Amino acid sequence: MGYPKEIYDAVRARYEERRRLASEVQAMHREEAFARIPRLAEIDRELASTGLSVARAVLGREDTAGQIAALRRHNLELQRERRELLRAAGYPEDYLEIAYTCPICKDTGIAGYHRCRCMEEALRAEAQDRLNRASGLSLCTFESFSLDYYAKERDPATGVIPREHMAQILHSCEAYADDFSEDSPSLLFFGHTGLGKTHLSLAIADRVLLSGFGVIYGSIQNLLSRIEAEKFGRREEENAGTMAMLCEADLLILDDVGSEFVTPFSVASLYQIINTRLLEGRPTVLSSNLGPREMEERYNERIVSRIFGSYLTFRFIGSDIRQLKKGRP
């Protein structure tokens, strides 16, 4: 899946540390057991010499099958004796073996020709942790999205019942997350502040991450500032490539579109992100406090036409939930 390089690097470093610690623990176990049971050290040396004997037998090509069979029997006998000595001393039979966190990939992250399941889980966990930190919020879930804050009475301005309308949006977002694939459509959430756009964006991210896809979430202002800093060399000491990372993510979620300071650079960058992802068929979720008319006034026609011509749009309605929560005892 399409995780950013920095996530891969962080997880690989963690796996290297696991292997280092496992080797240190094994070394301590061996030192302790060999001191108590000297015969174990002798067995260890004999087992090591067995490999050399097999190599000599193969190279010598004299009665190779017979020699290898005899060496295998001797090897098995040594292993049996080692297990009995360990068991008699109160140790587990595998006390001298290196104890990896994942016995399948031996903490390499690779099983056969593919990433091990443990590596997939570690990547998802790292991505989820970074998503939490980037959003400044705890990850939201669909289960924690409450419809109680939306009115049950028909709104005279829109002609719809906010709670019923938002229940449909909640259902659509959950279905989107459950069925997410690289071919999923892009979404636009728009409406006044405090109506749950960020909550549902993060709920989608949480569910999609659990499905094994790479998700990048961030406010448009922060991400564009980072791109600009990299472009003009103010972050040379850090990993550049934010633009590529945003364009390549399985799912990109841009929050607060329209809140950024509009400059030719920011508009060009936003267009590049939106257009590149559309051309490559990568889904994006945008959330904005701006309506269609306000977006037309703020951005050029190329951006607006691509959003409203290619995205599924969801209008959020109701009263500011943050203010409603503050008013509750």
What fraction, in percent, of the residue positions are helical?
55-70%
Total helix count? 12
Poorly predicted residue ranges = 235-239
**Shape from CA axes?**
elongated
Measured by DSSP, the beta-strand proportion falls in: 5-15%
Short summary:
By secondary structure, the protein is of the alpha/beta class.
Topology (elements, then pairings):
Elements: H1 5-36, H2 38-60, H3 64-88, E1 110-111, E2 114-115, H4 117-135, H5 162-178, E3 187-190, H6 197-210, E4 215-219, H7 220-231, H8 242-248, E5 251-255, H9 264-279, E6 284-288, H10 292-298, H11 301-310, E7 312-315, H12 321-327
Parallel strand pairs: 3-6, 3-7, 4-5, 5-6
Antiparallel strand pairs: 1-2
